[in-house]
Amino acid sequence: MWDQYNIRIDEKCKECYKCKACNKELPKNETQLQEHLSFSSFKIPLHHAFSNLLLNKEYQMTVQTVLDETHYCLVSDGWLNINKSLVISYMITTPI
Ligand SMILES: [Zn+2]
After folding, report:
1. Distance, CA 50 to ligand 1 centroid (Å)?
2. Under a CB-based contact definition with an 8 Å cutoff, are residues 65 and 77 in contact?
3. How many whole angstroms from 26 Cα to the centroid of ligand 1?
4. What are the structural domain ranges in the chain?
5. pTM, full prediction
6. pLDDT of residue 48
7. Burial environment of residue 36 by CB neighbours within 10 A (0 to 12, 13 to 18, 19 or more)
8. C-alpha 54 to ligand 1 mean position (Å)
9. What is the pLDDT of residues 21-45, one digit of tens each?
Protein backbone atom coordinates (compact mmCIF):
# COMPACT_ATOMS: atom_id res chain seq x y z
CA MET A 1 0.00 0.00 0.00
CA TRP A 2 2.79 2.47 0.86
CA ASP A 3 4.12 2.44 -2.69
CA GLN A 4 0.86 4.11 -3.80
CA TYR A 5 1.90 7.31 -2.00
CA ASN A 6 4.71 9.84 -2.16
CA ILE A 7 5.81 10.88 1.31
CA ARG A 8 6.58 14.50 2.10
CA ILE A 9 7.41 16.33 5.31
CA ASP A 10 5.16 19.34 5.87
CA GLU A 11 5.98 22.66 7.59
CA LYS A 12 5.12 21.15 11.00
CA CYS A 13 7.62 18.34 10.36
CA LYS A 14 4.84 15.77 9.99
CA GLU A 15 4.69 13.15 7.26
CA CYS A 16 2.07 13.72 4.55
CA TYR A 17 1.11 11.06 2.03
CA LYS A 18 0.30 12.20 -1.48
CA CYS A 19 -1.67 9.71 -3.55
CA LYS A 20 0.13 8.96 -6.81
CA ALA A 21 -3.19 8.41 -8.61
CA CYS A 22 -5.11 11.57 -7.67
CA ASN A 23 -2.54 13.80 -5.89
CA LYS A 24 -4.70 14.08 -2.77
CA GLU A 25 -2.67 14.66 0.37
CA LEU A 26 -3.55 12.71 3.46
CA PRO A 27 -2.14 12.64 7.00
CA LYS A 28 -0.22 9.64 8.28
CA ASN A 29 -3.17 7.50 9.30
CA GLU A 30 -3.07 3.92 8.06
CA THR A 31 -6.84 3.38 8.17
CA GLN A 32 -7.52 6.59 6.26
CA LEU A 33 -4.83 5.79 3.70
CA GLN A 34 -6.21 2.28 3.12
CA GLU A 35 -9.76 3.64 2.83
CA HIS A 36 -8.62 6.15 0.23
CA LEU A 37 -7.09 3.40 -1.89
CA SER A 38 -10.23 1.27 -1.58
CA PHE A 39 -12.44 4.09 -2.84
CA SER A 40 -10.07 5.17 -5.59
CA SER A 41 -9.87 1.60 -6.92
CA PHE A 42 -13.66 1.39 -7.29
CA LYS A 43 -14.60 1.31 -10.96
CA ILE A 44 -18.02 2.36 -12.18
CA PRO A 45 -19.57 -0.30 -14.45
CA LEU A 46 -19.57 0.51 -18.13
CA HIS A 47 -22.68 1.90 -19.85
CA HIS A 48 -23.34 -1.46 -21.51
CA ALA A 49 -23.31 -3.27 -18.13
CA PHE A 50 -25.69 -0.69 -16.64
CA SER A 51 -28.14 -0.65 -19.54
CA ASN A 52 -28.29 -4.39 -20.03
CA LEU A 53 -27.07 -6.78 -17.38
CA LEU A 54 -27.59 -4.68 -14.22
CA LEU A 55 -30.88 -3.10 -15.33
CA ASN A 56 -32.34 -6.48 -16.34
CA LYS A 57 -31.20 -8.05 -13.08
CA GLU A 58 -32.73 -5.22 -11.04
CA TYR A 59 -35.96 -5.45 -13.07
CA GLN A 60 -36.25 -9.19 -12.43
CA MET A 61 -35.61 -8.73 -8.70
CA THR A 62 -38.25 -5.97 -8.52
CA VAL A 63 -40.85 -8.01 -10.44
CA GLN A 64 -40.25 -10.99 -8.15
CA THR A 65 -40.57 -8.79 -5.06
CA VAL A 66 -43.88 -7.39 -6.31
CA LEU A 67 -45.22 -10.84 -7.25
CA ASP A 68 -44.36 -12.21 -3.81
CA GLU A 69 -46.30 -9.41 -2.09
CA THR A 70 -49.95 -9.70 -1.05
CA HIS A 71 -50.71 -6.01 -0.39
CA TYR A 72 -50.30 -3.14 -2.82
CA CYS A 73 -50.97 0.57 -2.84
CA LEU A 74 -51.50 2.66 -5.98
CA VAL A 75 -49.92 6.11 -5.65
CA SER A 76 -50.25 8.94 -8.15
CA ASP A 77 -48.50 12.25 -8.52
CA GLY A 78 -49.20 15.09 -10.93
CA TRP A 79 -47.21 18.11 -12.01
CA LEU A 80 -46.63 20.44 -14.97
CA ASN A 81 -43.42 20.26 -16.95
CA ILE A 82 -41.65 23.34 -18.38
CA ASN A 83 -44.05 23.29 -21.38
CA LYS A 84 -47.04 23.40 -18.98
CA SER A 85 -48.02 19.87 -20.02
CA LEU A 86 -49.59 17.78 -17.32
CA VAL A 87 -47.50 14.81 -16.28
CA ILE A 88 -49.09 12.17 -14.09
CA SER A 89 -47.03 9.38 -12.57
CA TYR A 90 -48.50 6.19 -11.19
CA MET A 91 -46.57 3.92 -8.87
CA ILE A 92 -47.42 0.69 -7.16
CA THR A 93 -45.87 0.39 -3.73
CA THR A 94 -45.58 -2.52 -1.37
CA PRO A 95 -45.00 -2.57 2.39
CA ILE A 96 -41.44 -3.93 1.89
ZN1 LIG B 1 -6.10 8.96 -4.74
Report:
1. 25
2. no
3. 9
4. 2-40, 47-93
5. 0.43
6. 86
7. buried
8. 27
9. 888 999 999 999 998 988 877 778 8
